[in-house]
Amino acid sequence: MGKRTLSELRDEIDVLDKKIQLLIGNRAQLVAKVAQVKKASDDSSVFYRPEREAQVLRSIIKRNNSLLKDKDMAYIFRQIMSACLALEQPLNIAYLGPEGTFTQEAALKHFGHSVSTLDCVSIDDIFHQVEKGNAHYGVVPIENSSNGMIGATVDMLYSQNLKICGEVEIAIQHQLMSANQSQGITVIYAHSQALNQCQRWLNNNYPNTELKSVASNALAACIVKDEVGAAAIASEVALDLYGLERIAKNIEDKAGNVTRFLILGKENISTSFENISTSFEGKTSLLVVIKHESGTLCDLLEPFKQQGINMIQLEKHPIPGVKWEYLFLIDIEGHKDNKKVKLALTEVASRVLKVNVLGSYPIAVL
Ligand SMILES: O=C(O)C(=O)C[C@]1(C(=O)O)C=C[C@@H](O)C=C1
């Protein structure tokens, strides 16, 4: 058989597309049945199941031996699951606005594009909107690979009762942009995080320019749309969205600049797997306050060692409103209902002033 012509190849693609479409339709029908099962169950209002979504995406990546990259294959299935979940329950996701922030990018990467989004003015506002029930879930930054923890988020985790039900990572590349490149730049707007992440570049390239910190990078882009002589540091998405011109590309000081975001909700995520210890590729986050006495930090850590539990993270953070007193944000491997984790947590609780289990959730898949 000779080489197939363009139209023959397209005919074959049409046949495959028809099959794929039919299969996606069949999948949607199954998900509609899943919704019925959930409605009849105890936690009838919880349709979003991050642990199952993570399992689906991990399997997709594991068996991907196609020409497509893992991340692209996973993206396609992420969108299919997003559309399927919207059949069960249309979700509204709170993020740091306006449109074009990295937080919005994180929200869409995690939930897919079949959700609606609610733009919030601050990290505190995201917590409040979820708390009030105006959004089903919220997305907040927790940690940047160059700058460390996001204090405003830790403060709110301490003072609010929301649960962590997922995490997502986004590569952060900053663009310098303005409405009109021919004008000299007298002021640069950005979120304080972006100013920190680009500090060296700004010192080298704009040593005498005024730097103004605003609530988000997308807001900075929005402001400079109408301000002569002003530039903004924001994302590629914001550059396109607000019709600005790029002055400089990827100005972050450190390559591989990544921000980790948390997904917040009102409920603990379901533990629908029969054997949590073997099938849950996840972690548990805790906030702990210990006595200001010799040996108390060792006492806190010992139960994890005794149970052979790996600690992923241990961060010290000032307790909001209490001078020179600190809380610890701890991430450990495993689900809070796993036998060993449970034993360790009970022991920890007996040794510290306060322990708040923020949630157990799947480790970011991509
Ligand atoms: O398995 C479920 O619980 C579903 O609702 C199905 C499904 C999917 O499309 O695979 C959809 C939404 C959930 O968040 C998880 C998975």
UniProtKB/TrEMBL annotation:
A molecular-function term among this protein's GO annotations: chorismate mutase activity
Localization per record: Cytoplasm
SUPFAM superfamilies listed in its UniProt record: ACT-like (SSF55021), Chorismate mutase II (SSF48600), Periplasmic binding protein-like II (SSF53850)
Keyword field contains Isomerase: yes
Phosphoprotein among keywords: no
InterPro entries in UniProt: ACT-like_dom_sf, ACT_dom, Chor_mutase/pphenate_deHydtase, Chorismate_II_sf, CM_dom_sf, CM_II_prokaryot, G/b/e-P-prot_chorismate_mutase, Preph_deHydtase
Positions of the Chorismate mutase domain: 1-92
EC number: 4.2.1.51, 5.4.99.5
Catalytic activity: prephenate + H(+) = 3-phenylpyruvate + CO2 + H2O; chorismate = prephenate
Residue ranges of domain ACT in the record: 285-360
PANTHER family hit by this protein: PREPHENATE DEHYDRATASE P PROTEIN, PREPHENATE DEHYDRATASE-RELATED
Name the record gives this protein: Bifunctional chorismate mutase/prephenate dehydratase
Gene behind the chain: pheA
